[in-house]
Write a structure and sequence with these properties.
Shape: globular
Structural class: mainly alpha
Oligomer: single chain
Number of helices: 8
Helix content: over 70%
Largest sheet: none
């Protein structure tokens, strides 16, 4: 009975990650709303806050954000086997798509319908990223932290007005958050 349930979970994990990988174009952050839909909304394998934490870890670890997030979601759902199954499922669609595109690149690149489809995918990816940013901001506002709430507009201003490199902004934000945690723990002790 337990083996049957495990197999059912593994098959679901494979199918969900295969679907997510096949239908999310535009980078790692487009995966988050789909993971939310499958893992949080439909199956309740973890919470919205867990997902945001996993997205932050997926972004800060080496490798593709989409693959890292798939691995973390699989691990949270079904342990090491779940992570492995999720990674394999997440790799298959891009591998197949890139193989086909590589084989027919010269014919595809000049086709006007393909160009229009790719433009549509860009717009869809942008909409998913805006949705993700809004959800992350809502979670930050729930924490009622002046530092976290101020970081968002200040980071935007630093990057787009003063043209400070995003990596430097990330490092400063990480340092400030670690400093805040250190001060909070010291105050509690």
């Amino acid at each position: 009975m337990i083996l049957k349930q495990s197999m059912k979970l593994y098959v679901w994990l494979f199918a969900a990650n295969l679907f997510i990988s096949a239908f999310t174009f535009g980078g790692g952050y487009t995966v988050v709303p789909m993971v939310r839909r499958f893992f949080v909304a439909k199956k309740q394998y973890f919470t919205e806050e867990d997902l945001m934490n996993m997205a932050a870890v997926a972004q800060s670890t080496p490798g593709a954000i989409a693959l890292n997030l798939s691995a973390l979601a699989g691990y949270k759902t079904a342990g090491i086997a779940g992570a492995l199954i999720s990674c394999i499922a997440a790799i298959i669609p891009p591998l197949v798509i890139l193989t086909v595109i590589s084989a027919f690149y010269k014919k595809l690149i000049s086709h006007s319908i393909i160009a229009a489809v790719l433009k549509g995918m860009e717009a869809g990816a942008a909409a998913l990223m805006v949705d993700f940013i809004i959800d992350m901001y809502a979670l930050i506002l729930k924490k009622k932290s002046l530092l976290l709430s101020a970081m968002i507009p200040l980071s935007f201003i630093a990057h787009f007005i003063f043209e400070i490199h995003a990596a430097l902004i990330l490092l400063v934000c990480c340092f400030l958050c670690m400093l805040q945690v250190f001060c909070k723990r010291r105050k509690e002790a």
